[in-house]
Structure prediction request, 311 residues.
Amino acid sequence: MWLLSEAPVPTLIDGHTPLRARSVRVNLTRMGWGMVIACILLWIMAVNYQVNVAYALVFWLLGILLFGALAGIRQLTGIVLTIEPQPEYYAGKECVLTLRACDSCKRTRWLWLQTAQEITGTASDWELWTITPENTDFLWTLPPQKRGILPRLLLAGASMAPFGLLMIKTQWEFTDEVIIFPEPVEHTSPIACNSDDEPGTLISLSGQDPAYLLPHQNTTSLRQIAWKHYAKTGNLLDKYFEQGGKRVQLLLISYRDYPPGTSVEKMASMMCYRVLAADASGEKYVLELPRQRYEATTGQRIKCLNALGRW
Prediction:
């Protein structure tokens, strides 16, 4: 915490790590440099002409600078930030992250955030976040990202309160894993390329199959509740029973449905579209990737989208 010091070590955005005083640095603004120069000139005059009032004025101005530095540091220290991502992000679209101040905000804080990903050095790079007990959320909008895991994010913050004489700077770091799903590309679904010796995927509509657990109905017998599934996930679902062990063929969404030489990015986007379409229509499906196969089960949509995002 020194004037013109090196960039501080970023503080993690994890919901429980508070910002410490050692993680900030203090820089003079233009007005602050003007006051420092004024103090130097007043001190020279006081020494040469023995003007006691000038001595008092110098110490008074230096006291304002010291108070401004302490008050500015207090604006930032103790802040605990967390990020709540949205359930789904797709490549080619803006990513909106909800930045939340977790500490008990009993007083107002004025925090400037450098949310721009391409820094231009202008005031438009910064956004003001006035943290109050009623306003603890800030929407951080990122430009469209590529498919895959969201890269490590650095967020610069600064405060010039209360006098605008000093700028207190710090940095936060977000390292949690957020997966960007492929951009869905609408296309005509290809005909599955199943060989003669590989029959279509079949699944039984009987009892314990997790793909056919339905939302719990109050009229359903307690014996039909999938208690094992409830113990694992907390979701109350009913078992679906069908007399005679009826079997149906599932939709197979496979990378082998596309011509050789098709890029991974293109295949991931087209398969993403088919997964979303099948999920929207309620059709049961299986996703097949090289050395990976995702059978029909509860939570199939998010599992398949995660797999396509990581592929």
In short: The radius of gyration is 30 Å.
